[in-house]
Amino acid sequence: MRAAHVLASSSLALPPDSYIYSILDTKSIASNLAAISSDDSLRIFDPQTLQVVSGGIFEKVHEGLTCARALNDEGHALATAGRDGLVRGWDSRTGQKVFSLKDETNSPYLALDCCPHNTLLATGTELNHSQAAVVIWDYRSPGKPLLQYTESHNDDVTELRYHPSKTAMLLSGSTDGLVNLYDTAISDEDDALYQVMNHGASISHTGFLSETEIFALSHDETLSIYHITEPDEDTLEIHPIVFGDVRPRLKLHCLWCDIAFWLIPVSEERLDLVSLKSQPQWAFDEGNPIRLAGGHGQEIIRSLYINDKSNTIYTAGEDGLVKAWRTVDDNGSSNQEVETTKKKRKKGASSKEARFKPY
Hints:
mainly beta; nine-stranded mixed sheet; four-stranded antiparallel sheet; 3 helices; 46% strand
């Protein structure tokens, strides 16, 4: 077991009773990070000090902000989506809105991803009038969507991920229990549906573990790993690796994941970060966890981000704080914790009632 220590902690100048939905990489040259929060703001901050950069607060970007992603724009722009049925782009250098997208259904958006290879982005809607859609845009042409897949899911679309190298391949997950893989170069929805995986439970997270493997995690913590089939493969079907409910095995009540890393609340006093490794078959590396002593106290953690280059772990949650962590050096010494930015936080029923519930 390795121990991780807090390097920095910051409230990102959030107002009282706010909490953070997620943190993400802006893909900028400065390696800045961004956070979206319950006050419907987008905030860009320095990964070393965790302080908001100059001009880095974008207030009220939506009425009901739900998700954000970095655009394929050399780190200059971010996209956001919300329950107001809008997708917006923001220039991180000027603070200006650079585009606004809206389809005719006016459905709330719950999922968003931006293609890392071109100017396409995909959004997933909440079920509205018996229809849940995957909507694909070219943000340079905001007039109307390029594609809309409206029949592949029959409940809220909760996750979207573009393939890391195949430009047209898009993954979606839904509360209907299906994980779908599309070839978005094809406009006809039936023909575009490349592969369907029935996880059998409402999807919380899904993503690519490798070029050929997908994970799916349900809201009740059942986990499986699926192999992407090739249409010309003559080999036998590769069955999924089914972990089932991982809570009894890992002795946890809930978890958060960042692709191959899983944050496990051991108690109110600490959190363990466990990696999922292929050795050669996918399995949890339970014997070598990273322990985040203290975690975020009794508050729920909403987001986890790991910077492999700096070996830094970032967490954010309902205490309204972002924390940066790093493991003890090989010689036993640890990095010195920088001065934290603390904030007063009121406890009240109003903050609980106003929460965006991502499931």
